[in-house]
Amino acid sequence: MFGLIACVLAAGGADGALSPADLTCELLKDPLGIDVLRPRLAWRLVAADPATRGLKQTAYRILVASDLRTLSKGKGNLWDTGKVLSDTNWQIPYKGQSLTSRLTCFWKVKCWDQDGNESDWSKPAKWTVGLLETSDWGAKWIGYETNLRPTPVVATYEKPHADWVQDRPAPIFRRTFSAKPGLKSAVASVCGVGLYELRLNGKKVGDHELDPPFTRYDKRCLYSTFDVTKQIKQGENALGMLIGNGWFDVNENEEWNFLNAHWRAKPRFILNLHLTYADGTSENVVSDGTWKAVHGPVLRDAIRNGEVFDAREEPAGWDKPGFDDAKWQSVEVVDGPKGALRSLSMPAIKTMQTLKPVKIAEPKPGQYVLDFGQNIAGRCVLGVKAKPGTEITIRYGERLAPDGTLDMRLMLFGVFAGPFQTEKYTASGKGLESWHSRFTYSGFRYVQVSGLPAKPTQKTLVAQVLHTAFEDTGTFECSNPLLNDIVRITRWAYKGNYVGIPTDCPHREKNGWTGDAHVISETAQFLFENTAAYEKWINDFKDEQPPAGDFPGIIPNPGWGYGIGPAWDSAYIIIPWNIYLYRGDKRILEEHYEGMKRFVDCLAGRAKDYIVEYGLPDWLPPKTGTPTPITSTGYFYCDAKTLAKIALLLGHKDDAARYSELANNIQKAFVKSFLKADGKVGEGSQAAQACALFFGLVSPTDSQKVAAALAANVEANDGHLDVGFHGNRWLFSALSDAGHHDLAYRIATQTTFPSIGNMLKQGATTIWEDWYANNSLNHVAFGCVVGWYYTHLAGIQIDPDQPGFKHFTVRPRPAGDLKWVKASTMTPCGKVAVEWRLTGKTFTLKVTVPPNATSTVWVPCDDALSVAESGRTAASAQGVRFIGMKDGSAQFEVGSGSYKFRARR
Ligand code: BGC
Question: pTM for the complete prediction?
Answer without folding.
Answer: 0.96
